[in-house]
Write a structure and sequence with these properties.
257 residues; alpha/beta; 40% helix; eight-stranded parallel β-sheet
């Protein structure tokens, strides 16, 4: 069985067809998914989607790309977790889309890390063109106390090593199936299975053979199949390891579905 550790089922591309999305998950042996929050106004909908299905879980957080949006306090983030809300994030740094003084991003990131430490929940971290600052702030804020996942990983092996030294998992998305993702494929061959997760980041980044189409959790099996091919192991080995890692990291009972 497979688990999608990062998807956005509240986004309009998927929200209007949730029954079909859930049917496709079942047909492809995708047993669970984590629905990720990206801004406070959407928390209610994200959490309602997770609450309506026994095999869906959710996070609480604000994405670094969202500049003009309400800021959650450390206390609010910590208090909102619990039950089916199993993680803090998506949080992190993104210097690719935004420029100028991005200290507000760094402060938001610190707030999320402190909240995660307060409530003992793992972090879901986004980093793009900001790996050095991301690792530095994780270290400074004691993120190793809670760990988490570097989602949709596209960085170097050295960055992966730095994250794993802090107790973080490395999550691979459909990007690993792209022909030109040569360096990322090498990282996927080297990350220990006990530190690996797989995801779709749907509705974005659909894997081959669906590249360019709307992504969905059912397609996470193609990520697993590509990693199995790269490592020359049965796909069942990738499925078993990443699924076990998901349940352990987010402290989810696999029998509750």
């Amino acid at each position: 069985m497979f688990v999608d550790s990062h998807c956005h089922l509240d986004f309009p591309e998927l929200r209007e067809q949730l029954p079909a999305v859930m049917d496709a998950m079942r047909a492809n042996a995708v047993t669970h998914a984590l629905v990720i929050a990206v801004e406070m106004p959407a928390w209610g909908q994200v959490h309602a989607i997770a609450g309506a299905a026994p095999n869906l879980y959710a996070s609480v957080g604000v994405h670094p790309d969202y500049q003009d949006t309400p800021e959650p306090t450390r206390d609010l983030l910590a208090r909102t977790t619990g039950g089916k809300i199993v993680a803090i994030g998506e949080t992190g740094l993104d210097y690719y889309r935004l420029t100028g003084d991005l200290e507000w991003q760094r402060e938001r990131f610190r707030t999320h890390i402190r909240a995660a430490r307060d409530c003992g929940r793992p972090l879901v971290v986004h980093t793009r063109s900001a790996a050095d600052d991301t690792l530095r702030i994780l270290r400074e804020e004691g993120a190793a106390e809670v760990g988490g996942v570097m989602h949709c990983f596209t960085e170097t092996w050295e960055v992966a090593q730095g994250a794993m030294e802090l107790g973080f998992h490395i999550s691979f998305s459909g990007i690993v199936t792209f022909r030109n993702a040569v360096a990322l494929k090498d990282v996927a061959k080297r990350v220990p299975l006990e530190r690996m997760l797989i995801e779709t980041d749907s509705p974005y980044l659909a894997p081959v053979p669906y590249r360019g189409k709307t992504n969905q959790p059912a397609y996470v099996r193609h990520v697993a199949e590509e990693i199995a091919r790269l490592r020359d192991v049965p796909v069942e080995a990738i499925a078993q390891a990443t699924t076990a890692n998901f349940f352990r990291l987010f402290r989810i009972d696999p029998g509750l579905h």
